[in-house]
Amino acid sequence: MTNRRENMSKLKNKVVLITGASSGIGKQLALRAASEGANLAICARTESKLLETQRLCEERGAQVVAVPVDIMDPSALGRYVDAAVGRFGTIDALVNNAHTITLPAPFLDKTIEDLDTEMRSSVYAYWHLMKLSFPHMRDHQGAGASIINFASEAAVMGDSLYAPYAAAKEAVRGLSRVVAREWGAYNIRVNTLCPNGMTDNISSGIEWMEDATRDHIEKSFVNNPFRRVGDPYEDVAPVVVFLASDESRWITGQNIHADGGGLINA
Predict the structure, then answer these.
(1) Active centre residues (catalytic)
(2) Can you tell me the mean pLDDT for 90-109?
C-alpha cells in the first residue's frame, strides 16, 4: 500500500475531512484520498465501521482521526472539527458527503418529519461544518482550500419518490453557490458534486423494497450512455480527489456531475 501511496500523491500532506465515511461512497472516498497522500479526519455514526475505515486508510499510509458523530447534532460537529484541527492544525478540504435519506415514496405519503430529517442531515449539517471549518481554511496560500458538498442528480431532475431528498439537495446547491461567491476572497473554493455509483448501502437497502420502487432505483443507476453502474472508488472518488487537489484551483461555484453522462445538458 505504501508504494501505491507514493505513486498517487495528488493530495500529498493535505488534511481532508470526510463525513459519512463508515460505509458507502464516503468509505470509498476516504480510501482513495488516503491512497492519494491525504491525512484524514473522518466521521460517521457507527463507530465499529468507522474504525474499520480508519484501519484500511492507515494501511495506505494515512494518518487518520476517526470521530463517531451524528451529523444532525451541531455540538458533535464541533467536537469533530476540534479533533481534526487538534491533530493536524489545519483543514485543506472538507467533503460533506453524509446524508440520511428517508424511504422513497410518493410526495403525498411523505411527512414533515421526513423533510426535517433530510434537511438536518444535509443542508443544516453542511452549513454548520462549513462555518466551523472556515477559520482553519481561510487564506491558505497557493491554490487555497476546497469544500465539496454532495448534491444529487435526483434533485436536479426532480425524480419521483424523492421529495424531501430533492428539497434538501437543491438547498445544498443554492447554499454552496452563495458561499462560493463570498469565500473566494478568502481563497476558498466551493463546489457541489452529483455522483452516481452503486454502493454497498444502496444494494443492501433496495433488497427489501417493493418491486416497483426497487426497479425504479436500479434503472436509474444504468440510465447513462455507458449503460453500466458507476463504481464509487474508480468513477466517483477520483473526481472528489481532483476537486480537493490544487489542480482545481480555478473552479468554484460549479455543480459537477460524476454520473457517466446520466444528465447531459448545455
Answers:
(1) 165
(2) 97
